[in-house]
Amino acid sequence: QVQLVESGGGLVQPGGSLRLSCAVSGSIFSFNTMGWYRQAPGKERELVAVISSRGSTNYVDSLKGRFTISRDNAKNTVYLQMNSLKPEDTAVYYCNGKLQRSPYRVPDDYWGQGTQVTVSS
User: Fold this and answer.
1) What are the backbone angles phi and psi of residue 114, rounded to the nearest 5°?
2) What is the phi-psi region of residue 10: left when phi exceeds 0, alpha when psi lies from -120 to 50, beta otherwise?
3) Cα gap 98→50, rounded to integer Å
4) From CA 20, how far away is CA 69, in angstroms rounded?
5) More confident residue, 73 or 9
6) What angle is formed at CA 98 by the lines to CA 42 and CA 71, rounded to 5 degrees?
7) Among 65, 50, 55, 2, CA closest to 28
8) What is the mean pLDDT of the chain?
9) Could you give the CA distance from residue 10 to residue 118 in angstroms, rounded to a whole number?
10) Taking 80 as the threshold, does the pLDDT of residue 117 lie above it?
11) pLDDT attached to residue 54
């Protein structure tokens, strides 16, 4: 089965940086779109950033340029560089992949298990 495995989370002080990785295995296809979502305690899961197969990116405005998403198709891995971290960034971060099997249907979603990011002094 297809697996998305996140890594790189942990405890960091405010102002610090982390780089999350998401490795995809178990498939012979590439996702059309990959992205990062996060879910903070008591909140709904929200989109953080997305990157297409062609490398175009989009970010949530509230991040204000602190986060950068990138993709290495040769390694089948997507990354999220997080700088100037704030306590409100504390959340479980999930890797997401979308596979467009047909133009007549919405893409299929694949999710990782999540990695905890805690920003605290």
Assistant:
1) 95, 150
2) left
3) 10
4) 9
5) 9
6) 95
7) 2
8) 94
9) 6
10) yes
11) 87
Decide if 2 contacts 112 (C-beta within 8 A): no
Question: Which amino acid belongs to residue 80?
Answer: L
Structure tokens at 41: 């305690």
Are the C-beta atoms of residues 87 and 120 closer than 8 Å to each other?
Answer: yes
Q: Is 90 exceeded by the pLDDT of residue 61?
A: no
CA distance 21 to 79: 5
| H and E: helices and strands count for the chain | 0, 11
pLDDT bin (cut points 50, 70, 90) of residue 20 is very high
User: The tokens of 118 are what?
Assistant: 């805690």
Contact 72, 22 (CB under 8 A): no
Q: Exposed e or buried b for every residue in 49-81, given b needs 16+ CB within 10 A?
A: bbbeeeeeeebeeeeeeebbbebeeeebbbbbe
| Distance separating the N- and C-terminal Cα atoms of the chain | 39
- From the list 116, 115, 114, 112, the residue with the least C-alpha distance to 3 is 112
Query: In Å, what is the CA distance from 102 to each residue of 1, 7, 25, 45?
Result: 20, 31, 22, 26
